[in-house]
Amino acid sequence: MTNQALTEKIFPQSTNPGSQPFLNGVNPEGQVALNIDGISLYAPRGVTILEAARSIGIRIPTLCHHPDLCFTGVCRICLVEVEGQRTLQASCAYPVFSPIRVKTWSPAIRRARRNILSLMLRNHHGTCYACTKNTRCELQALCMEYGITDHAFGHQERPRYEKDLSSPVLVRDMDKCILCRRCVRTCMHMQGVGVLEVLGRGEESKIGTCFDLPMAASLCIHCGQCVNRCPTGALHEKSDTAEVWKALETPEKHVVIQTAPAPRVAIGEAFGCPPGVSLTHKLNTALKHMGFNKVFDTNFTADLTIMEEGTELLLRLKKRYADQDTRVKLPQLTSCSPGWIQYIESFHPSCLDYLSTAKSPQQMFGALIKTWYAEKMGLNPQHIVSVSLMPCTAKKFECERPEMRASGYKDVDFVLTTRELAAMIREGGMDLTLMEESSFDDPLGIGSGAGLIFGATGGVMEAAIRTAYEIVTGEEVPFSGLRVEPVRGMQGIRRAELPILKAKKPWKFLEGLSLKVMVAHGISQARQILAMLSRGELEDVHFIEVMACPGGCLGGGGQPIPTSPEIREARARALYQEEENLALRKSHENPVVQAIYKEFLTDGPCGCLSHKLLHTTYGKREPQAETSAPGKA
Amino acid sequence: MIQTPAVSKPIPGSPENVVSSHTSRSVLLPELLAIQKKNGTITEKDVRDLAQGLGIHPVEVYSVVRFYSLFHYDKGAKHIIRICRGLGCGMKEKKKWAEIFEKTLGISVGQTTADGVFGLEYVSCLGLCDHAPAFMVDDTLYTDCAPEEVSHILHTHRSAGKRPDFCAWEIFGHAARSGPVLFAPHEDWSGLKKAFQLGRKAVVEEVLHSGLRGRGGAGFSTGLKWQMALDAKAPLKYVICNAGEGEPGTFKDRILLTEYVRKVFEGMLIAGFATGASQGILYLRGEYGCLLPGLESSLSRLREDQLLGSSVLGKKDFHFDIRVHLGSGAYVCGEETALIESLEGRRGEPRNRPPFSVEVGYQGAPTLVNNVETLASLPSILVHGASWFKGLGTAQSSGTKLLSVSGDCGAPGVYEVEYGVSIGDILDMVQADKAKAVVVGGAAGSCLPRKSFHRVLGYEDAATSGAFIILGQHRNLLDMAENFLQFFQEESCGQCTPCREGIGFLLESLRTIRQRGLEASLLEKILSLSETMRLASKCGLGQTASKVFSDVLNLFPEEYQRITVEV
Question: Residue B504 contacts by C-beta under 8 Å, 6 or more apart in sequence?
Fold first, then answer.
């Protein structure tokens, strides 16, 4: 392709710089002229050299750069030559405001990149084959690419730091840290939780927590977004795979697994598929091969969540509008995301009463497995091992909470992240992409499409609207194909209104009301919601969905690495597409949900037994004492 | 159903969008300094309270505390003894002060006495090389002390916690040699009045024509920088006087900020007038803390005399005020973007450029940062004219330069010399007849051997920020290089890989050379790494850190042993 054709392909609206003189290098559309490796192009003013180069197919290696994060330009791998500059410039952190001529390759650049990689290895202690990131490590990949086969600038023979195993969920191995600060920018800027920062300076600098205490003593919400962005093995989740293998290999144990919606559209990435390929039914087969006695669908309890949380909302609305009770807390906030729950418990305990008391689908599932399912199957709950496949690291913390033992046992015994399960499948000698397809097991294998879209931001809200609207009005939501478009998408905070023109008998008080809802994903957005709430700006809003992770669960901290806005969008598309093909797309129409209220939870949603098994309580959270930290690796 | 409009994502780094979100954060460092001074330490409670007050995360405050060397988290002492480990002091110590204090107090450097009264630590160059060796107890500087005086000094500080109100600066504020620009007699404010006559644009032109370049080391054209600041459109602009003088072997600002402080302030006023700025900040390195009262009282006098505040000298449309901001112990804050980060209450880590500080600087506003000496040159330039200034020095380096002369010579001190003077002539002037080498420009400069003594001072030849350290025949140059590398290791912000990791490797290599000699393969690695550090580091610190060491290896082969490995 010629340069001109390339330029036009990438920036179709731009003019070829050769044919028209620059207007001070910035053309009327606010675009700026660049020449990269001899290729001329126009790009939007403020574009970084890296972005512009990538747009014309020139690859520049990066490490500290991440598409989700603000730029910092500290690793210096992405160096390029900018005409007129004495030194090399970090292309990821160089916004272009005036015309510029760039070379992305030269002998000096190659030498610099090689030296920088060798310098990174100086204090990078650890053995590649004994690392969770082996073959998936960005540092390793670059060293391979640049032919780094020795430690030219020396190497740490002994670890400099003690591994921090204090967190119930995350492991910090600072000997593998290359100080790219992605975790800091994730925790501080993207999530705004503010647990991690750079401490010290010079060669002594390291990433640490406030007062340099172990993670357990911090207010980490275990969202795992730092893990998703760590280029090396310095941050990873605590693995539960050994325990799960052990359970699978114990004949007297009845091992069941529930699989959440988000992992099935992402796990393929760990097996070489492009983002956005759904492997739901292949995954079922793989799990059965591995020896799980039953493979269930978390979508079932997602539907149940809609019934419980939806009923709770309608009850709150009744109190507010029919009983004129001004003390009732509205808007109701969703409670499916354990990272979000921990955030609000730690940072905004005054807002806890706004949270729905409904447990997350995972924990509802756990509670039912060791009660209803055990009873139905004639199993001793003691012999059941309840495993869940989750896109989430915070779920590992959630299942350990003392409130999550409603069945009298630990409701969910082990949580596997998508990454952990992918590793287990590989270890089991399977290529997931080549598996036969099979369905979920009875009786907890039926979930609706509404439950499936819980995996994407806005999905809980969409599912709730489909059910609540129909219960109140007796009619389907007024959207073609049940697609509640206004709550879909990736915008950080979304707001939508749904007028209720006509209500059925018990809900007459809602007639004429406009149901106001909001959707937020990512803790920075959650923080804004809470700020608005405390300022009293959300008094007229009824229901808000909040997810701790960007994109919702599909962007969870336990999902395959890497992540980016494009990857998350592809996963969301896969979820919605799969949903379209399902016959069952409303939670209240799920036959198992109907059956369970008939034969088990006989006093209905938000009834007595529901409250015991499916609802929970929250409390203000203080940093844990150092000593109470469990030490598993 | 309606959906609210999308919130657009700002373009990272674009001038329109880089406006600091935490304006109030700039009080963080002064507050921490006040706590440190009052209690000798910063506690967990202090960190939490400050974070809450500023609406930031406690770890952000803690991270700042852990960055600056003058702050102590939870292990402070009532009085802190800081022993200068600059090269100048190291060369003049007959007996190591560290050992004397260690013996007297019964602790090692880095420790605090059991009663919590005295803490002992090292400090990077105190800027007293001409009176070396020096140390500092709290804010009091001590030079020319005899070891026997130690117990008396300790007693003075211990008794009633009272600090002697003696400041060494007053004694040390004299120039060794005057020249036509900086140390020349000057009628106060005549430069500013001239600027008013000329008008903004003409002043910038004049500075451009004078050929004045930044005196801090980088040598960027001052006029061009002013032009950019003038062109930047903003309701509020800042002028910052960079008195972060931390370069080992540099102490010229000490003189300018005592004897010639009105010239410095006049320079700031001229800069403010010419660029349309209304706020001036003098960023003073923390180690120069005892200079603060003097500066503050000068400023109040100026305010009384209507030289600061609204309508300066009766000029209706020119309002300008100056405040002093004290640093907290970080050499890297001499780099202008790190300085700005520090002013904003953050870790002193250099920023990415573009955008440049003159476009997006302090609190997102256009900010002109000039060195003390650059600003102090301006009043004379305006009074006598650009051509007069250009007539001094060489074609590419107009004017005069202040040299901080120290080391093995008979007459250390601050000298004003014209650019173009040879190294040899300077050595004669300062009574150094047997020099083996001269370090021009300090740790970030270069090391010149005898055969280069014909070279002349100037941006085009021997460039310098002002340090001029003379090493006699008996000096071991590897000692000197090690001292500098240790300094850089201590002072690197640690942000970018080449600087953070590279300095450590150079230091290890130096020690290897000392023990075993230099193998060709190691030399190759060192030179390759030096190139990478020079080209790839984010700021001047990393870019210059390897220079003196590679100069020693390249130009002084007799200083170490070469090993030939037989293949």
Answer: A122, A203, B489
Mean predicted confidence (pLDDT) in A85-110: 96
- Residue A602 β-bridge partners: none
The stretches of A91-181 forming alpha helices (DSSP H) are 107-122, 138-145
Looking at the DSSP bridge assignments, the partners of residue A386 are A256
List b or e across B461-481, with b for residues whose CB sees 16 or more CB atoms inside 10 angstroms.
bbbbbbbbbbbeeebebbbbb
Euclidean distance between CA atoms B286 and B330, whole angstroms: 8
Whether B503 sits inside 8 A of A152 (CB atoms) is: no
Q: Choosing among B1, B41, B42, B490, which should be mutated to test the A contact, i.e. which has the most A CBs within 10 A?
A: B1
Residue B197, burial from CB neighbour count under 10 angstroms (0-12, 13-18, 19+): exposed
Q: For residue A376, what pLDDT is reported?
A: 94
Positions of A marked active-site? 309, 312, 336, 356, 395, 398, 403, 553
Identify the pLDDT of residue B168. Answer: 52
Phi/psi at A277 (5° precision): -105, 125
C-alpha to C-alpha distance for A598 and B518, rounded to whole angstroms: 85
C-alpha pair distances (Å), B559 with each of A501, A545, B480, B488, B553: 92, 71, 11, 22, 8
The DSSP call for residue B42 is: B
Report the gap between the CA of A144 and the closest CA in chain B (Å): 19
**Alpha carbons A422 and A262: distance in angstroms, whole number:** 14
List Cβ neighbours of A82 (8 Å cut-off, separation of 6 or more): A49, A89, A94, A100, A101, A102
The SS3 call for residue A616 is coil
Question: B16 to chain A: nearest residue by CA?
Answer: A46
- At what angle are helices A241-248 and A418-427 packed, to 10 degrees? 50
pLDDT over 70, % of chain A: 94
The token pair that represents B552 in the structure block = 């020693």
Contact B553, B510 (CB under 8 A): no
- φ/ψ bin of A37: left (φ > 0), alpha (ψ from -120 to 50), beta (otherwise): left
Token digits of residue B469: 């350290």
Say if CB A380 and CB A374 are below 8 A apart.
yes
Tokens of A156: 């740490």
Give percent of chain A above pLDDT 90.
Answer: 92
CB B59 within 8 A of CB B92: no
The pTM is what? Answer: 0.93
Asked if residue B370 lies in contact with residue B47, where contact means CB atoms within 8 angstroms, the answer is: no
Task: Tell me the pLDDT tens digit for each residue of B9-40.
Answer: 333 333 333 333 445 899 999 999 999 988 88
**How close is the nearest chain A Cα to the Cα of B242, in Å?**
22
3-class secondary structure, B401: strand
Q: Could you tell me which residue, A633 or A106, shows the higher pLDDT?
A: A106
| Radius of gyration, alpha carbons of chain B | 24
> What is the pLDDT at residue B160?
59
A223-to-A239, A240, A548 alpha-carbon distances in Å: 15, 17, 7
Expressed in angstroms, the distance from the first to the final Cα of chain A is 52
A contacts of B15 (beta carbons < 8 Å): 97
CA dihedral A308, A311, A316, A320 (to 10 degrees): 180
Cα–Cα dist A326/A340, whole Å: 26
Q: Do A202 and B492 touch (CB under 8 A)?
A: yes
What is the distance, to the nearest Å, from the Cα of residue B171 to the centroid of all Cα atoms in its chain? 21
Average pLDDT of the segment spanning A79-101: 96
pLDDT score recorded for residue B218: 82
Residues of chain B with pLDDT under 50: 1-22, 165-166
The answer to whether the CB atoms of A496 and B57 lie below 8 A apart is: no
CA A260-A266-A270 angle, to 5 degrees, is: 125
